[in-house]
Amino acid sequence: MVAPPITFEGDRMSVHFDTFDLPAYDLFLRVKNIPEYALTFDPEGETYTVTAPARFAEMLGVERPAGSAQSLPLSPFLYDDQAYIVPTALEAKRYAVWSDCGGGKTVIGLEYARHVIHRTDGRVLIVTLNEIVPQWIAEAATFYGDSLPVVRLNTREQMKEWCRHGTVDGVPTIAKVGITNYEKFNHKGDDDQNVAELRHLAGLVLDEASRLKCGGGKQKWAVIKSGKGIEYKLALTATPAPNEPIEFASQASFLEKMRSDNEIIWTYFARDPDTQEWTVKPHARKAFFEFMSSWSIYVRDPKRYGWRLNLPDVPPPKYIRLDIEPTAEQRTEAARIMATPAAANGQQTLISDKGIGMVERNKLSQVAKGFVYLKGKPGDKKGTKKIRRIPSNKPATVARIVADEVATGSQVLVWTVFDGESKELAKQLGREGVEYELLTGATAEADRAATLDRFRDGQCRVLVSRASLLGFGMNFQMCSAMVFSGWTDSYESFYQAVRRAVRHGQAKRVRVYLPCVRDLEDETLANLDRKAAQMEQAISEMETQYVRVLSKGERR
Question: What angle do helix axes 358-369 and 522-551 make, rounded to 10 degrees?
Fold first, then answer.
């Protein structure tokens, strides 16, 4: 008895079963362990054919034939982890790189695009956040010079035209790499957000792919549906937690690794009946990570894989918490928000005796910073918010911290949550004689780019902005201190903001100040601490599982 033959065609292999004797059954069991395969049945001949990526050949006990296509050498400046990830992603064709902030995802994306162009002679579109587009273009020029030109696509129509014809406003461009931002997939008044022109692409790279985890957003589904069928696709984002099924399901859907949009959820996840949170099923953990590692890699610390052993570690940040006493006016306002009675000693109990929800935390956060937003009235100009000032010690405290840091020669990032907070803080910085630049959502794109250039060059010593604007994807290794004037319940946003400066290339230990108004911001800060502990535990386990699969040769 002889096992069914295994044939290869390009990057696919096929196994044809016309009998099920012992050798055939043994081979079929091994086929079932392959993370990614398709099974078809021929009713006339009553035979089965299994097709799968040829990279899984070793799992069936056979050696894959050497490829005939001439390969393009990897760029010599890649780190050892990047030199492993890029060929693996190219072999898989559709792949996710979940690498921590500062792990070099931009270079991975550019190198991947370079090889896809060489293999297909087609075009590759990169989609990222609007603020990061100039950074990608600058990195391409730094690493590749004129050999990998990148064209910026500023409108939805330019994106569609370039994808289809390789032209911009009717003018041919030599650039086979185009870059645009996610908002180009928004189209008001059109329920069908599919951009059909993307089907002409050879490759699609999503940077900051965590944008896909939004539950039912039109932008998310426009990207996923528009990218259907593209041969090469790459998703890049910082490390997500293993209990984020929506993010994993969305990225698996984008990479076309599921038979249905909910497959990854009902196969590997279960909802805790007490907490209502999704977690990986205990009996499915091994299978879950083996499935994930067939089309993704998860890197928080490259040294755990044996990579970058000759490079120094990035110094961990130094967190400095400063308690600030609330003013009498803040206590009164907080008590009104929480509707809490006075205690027996006459003091307001504020939030200590009752639970606090997100809405209340948001209002208390405003009060802590010295204002509250007022409800708008009919006829008010759209986009404007009126505020009522409340005496607070926080803006002055933040300004003094910044002034002290600047006096020692530091460049400082100041993170805010509200525009009203930023404006009050700007006044205090002026009183301290601190020169600063402020970025808000209303800042024009050209002015924003110029401000960021000045900050990177050291001409601007203090930059004030919101984490929601600059907290993702930016490189600010020149910064040695940051002050959180405000924070939200999102640990992802907080972590990403810290990692703007605490990343590869940072030689100093970044000081991260957390001035906290007692009784007003404690709850939100404690919530961040809880989420941080949960996230770190989940990330550690996930990386351990990926290292296990890779070290045992289970991942192909």
Answer: 120
Task: Work out the end-to-end distance of the chain between its first and last CA atoms, rounded to an integer number of angstroms.
Answer: 29
d(CA 162, CA 483): 42
CA 239 to each of CA 65, 267, 536: distance values in angstroms, whole numbers, following the listed order? 34, 22, 11
Residues in the chain: 556
Structural contact between residues 149 and 220, judged by C-beta atoms closer than 8 angstroms:
no
Tokens representing 355 are 């639970």
- Note whether 302 and 81 are within 8 A (CB): yes
Q: Which two tokens stand for residue 95?
A: 């792949």
Give the single-character DSSP code of 150. Answer: E
- State the amino acid at position 101 in one-letter form: C
Q: What is the mean pLDDT of the chain?
A: 85
Average pLDDT on 444-467 reads: 89
Name the nearest CA neighbour of 466 among 429, 412, 417, 413: 417
Say how many C-beta atoms besides its own lie within 10 A of residue 403's C-beta: 17
User: What pLDDT sits at residue 35?
Assistant: 67
Q: At what angle do helices 80-92 and 105-120 cross, to 10 degrees?
A: 40
Quick: pLDDT tens for 14-53.
Answer: 988 887 788 888 888 888 777 677 888 888 888 889 888 8
Instruction: Tell me the one-letter amino acid at 55.
Output: R
**Which of 534, 530, 19 is CA-nearest to residue 243?**
534
Cα separation of 337 and 433, whole Å?
35
* One-character DSSP codes across 430-477: HHTT---EE--TTS-HHHHHHHHHHHHHTS--EEEEEHHHHSSS---T
What is the predicted pLDDT for the residue at 189? Answer: 58
Helices (H), 2-104: 22-32, 80-92
Q: 188 pLDDT exceeds 90? A: no
Tell me what pLDDT residue 555 has: 43
Distance CA 337, CA 369 (A): 15
Share of the chain above pLDDT 70, in %: 87
User: CA torsion 543→548→551→556, rounded to 10°?
Assistant: -80
Residue 290 amino acid letter: E
Model confidence at 341, pLDDT cuts 50, 70, 90, reads very low
Tell me, what DSSP letter sits at residue 39?
E
User: Rounded CA gap, 210 and 251, in Å?
Assistant: 8
Closest C-alpha among 530, 469, 479, 523 to residue 503: 479
